[in-house]
Amino acid sequence: MANIAVIGTGYVGLTTGAYLAHLGHSVVCADVDPAKIAMLERGEMPILEDGLEELVRSGVEGGRLRFVLGNAEAVSAAEAEFVFLCVPTPQSDDGSADLSYIESAAADIGPVLSSEAVVINKSTVPVGSTLVVERALGRGNIAVVSNPEFLREGSAVHDCLHPDRIVIGSEDQAAAIRVASLFSEIKAPVIVTDPASAETIKYASNAFLATKISFVNAVANLCEAVGADVRDVVVGMGYDKRIGFEFLKPGPGWGGSCFVGEESVLARRRGDRWARLLTFEELFAEVDRVGAVGWEVAAWAPGDPSPDYFPVRAFTARAYQGDIVDVRTKLGRRVTVTADHPFFVGDGFDHEPVAIRTAGDLTIADWLPIAQDGPIWLEGEVTEASPLDALDAAGVGREQVIVRLDAGQAAAMNAAIDLLPRPRRHDVARTKTLRLSECDALGIAPDGSTCATTTNGTYVPAVVPLDEHFWRMVGLYLAEGHVSVDGDRRRIAWSFHPTKEADLAEAVADYWERLGVKVTQRRLATAFQVSISSRILAAWFLDILGLGRTCYDKALPDIAWTLPEYLKRSLLAGLWDGDGSWSYVAGGPSVVLQYGTVSRKLADGMLRLLGDLRIAARLRVGRTAKSTVDTYWITISGADQVEDALWLLPVEEQVEVRRSLAGQAKRIAPTGYRRLGKGVVWARVTSAERRRFEGRVYSLEVAEAATVVTSFGLVAHNCFPKDSQALVRIAEDNGYDFSLLKGVIEVNDEQFERMTAKIVRLAGGSVEGKTVAVWGLTFKARTDDTRRSPSIEVIDRLRAKGAKVRAYDPAAKETPEGVERAADPYAACEGADVLAVLTEWDELRWVDFEKVAGLMVAPRIVDCRNLLDPAAVRRRGFTYDGIGRA
Are the CB atoms for 177 and 201 separated by under 8 Å? Predict the structure, then answer.
């Protein structure tokens, strides 16, 4: 690991320093602003960037990241082998970059650099700036390397850790290799070239993206003129693999391809204790309840070693009537989507996708990815939990809970007993019990005690260790358990075979009795039952752990996705002990492991959890002769894979299976899938059948990964099709007239005028003296940065026409001069003549538009980002104008 100094703690510098520390290097970040350094030393972030605060905190707590005042001080404090220059290079009026900051920083550090140090320029600079840095250093023996950044605000941390490429420009090959070694933990192509080429790559990449954006804006204008819909035009263009979807849309938020409501996704919201496996219908109900900001879903970025959680950029739900496609694979994994939904497809030979194809166009020659080796949970292992968390769900007040105190708690009670009412003192001293509300009053934590309700004598532990024994017991409940309801009484029961599963019944009974819980065991006509009568435990199982009450609604607990591998094994082994089996194939010696359940959600979770453990199980769905519901059969096949999964079976059965497998003369790989690389296995499509559908469908935009891991681990494509002036100046300085890029800039500037004209037109032809409500100041959502913001460009034009502008933005650090800042979206709209949506903040989709309409002089919206559903807002009485929508 290397010693690194980072000069500048702005957007690029702070992100660079934090992620280099995350990679294990020792990093000292410097700035010349004392207030900013003081803020960082207090643990406060000077910028809003998703995931950055956590990364900085981790680096500081791990002793790998420090902050100092002064550039030379950072080099000395770090004993720097490498110095990253990450200072501003603001754009002048003529489009050229101001290099004074970078020259000053280089002059500061030059005298204190060791002769072996490498200076790495990460600032956005004109071609040829490596020579400028070399001159400013005043040292002829220091290697200067160009390493341009390609970070997108709002997803910079992810872009650092999952870059498309790493570009290094240097005339010194040894220095370039040393710099490349800093990123050895990053899986990305490394491009080593000369400095001029590296610097040009940065500008050319940004200019090409600007070209695509300006082009689609021009197409949107054409669509308005001829009566076309830009959404459909973009979809038709994007499926041409020579063009692609990325950056080919006038604004995010519109959707076409979608999932039906019963399909599922593993989702979490920032601040959640753990992830949840939710159907799309359930997820969107949660989004309606708590808002759309901060959600992440499990997704797989092609080329990544494993799936991960990626931010959701947009949610869309809509009524739909048309064709949907039931996609099935040889491995049995299945998903139902609209016919136009795209998938990454493979050829069965390469580990990378070879094409994007819609569901309606899939054939049996296509292979689809299935996620394996699930996302790593970084928040730490949860080692214990409290059934008392379920009191509200059980309808039990804290005054209704009796706490049986241990010796230490009893001593604490005696010391504070005078705080209790006099009539209670004798009883509690004699019984060594308190009401839970009394524990609260006396400051006595119930941890380590046992508790019962005042109407039920079954004591349960206040805290339960989440160890292997607990998770095996939970697995046995999911396989063999249920909760019965009799008035207010709740009983958890495990029902086993009357003679063949005595060991399982004993294991459950022993587990609870060791925790001091009263267990009832009885032999029934067709089963041997172990049961516990407890409202608290039943509510904990059902409402907190979410295990389900009957075989039809069983589900893995949400906490399962955070477990380390050995505990995931314990949970699955408990399930297999209860309802799993193994059998010979055609009399042996081949063997398969099998499990059956009538709960789709349990099958979905088990397949995903097995995938986390790198086991690709097969799924079969069907109905037995007398059943009225589908059964989901999970099968693990293939000798190597069966051997890897033998921990699912009891030890004596493992011995028998190993003996049988040892008799195989030849091991044949399981059919239906191929392991071609990390992260996913590939399963061949067996059918893609169309049928008519009428109902709601749901879409997600997961921009960075362009995928979502959906039902049974099957990976589907995103629902959404997925410094120019400086480059012109560089071209002019070198004798080239870059007329194409000049045209792109002209289209972009013209777009600001068109947006302003739309707002003026909808306001009645003039905004003089009128109030324009604006939603969004930042240049994009999920940042607090207003630099280069199209919103500000439009606002400036509106104010020049005499408009009064009142704006709302959830995060913008700055408010333009002369603009009134509103506390929320509704306050911005009070008395407004027209509303302009200028930044695509997800939370703006879910406001109460009937309330907004009532606040405005007239309900009129110009949606400059195509964020909203036009039909929905029009139903609420709005006059609506979007971009490129007829």
Answer: no
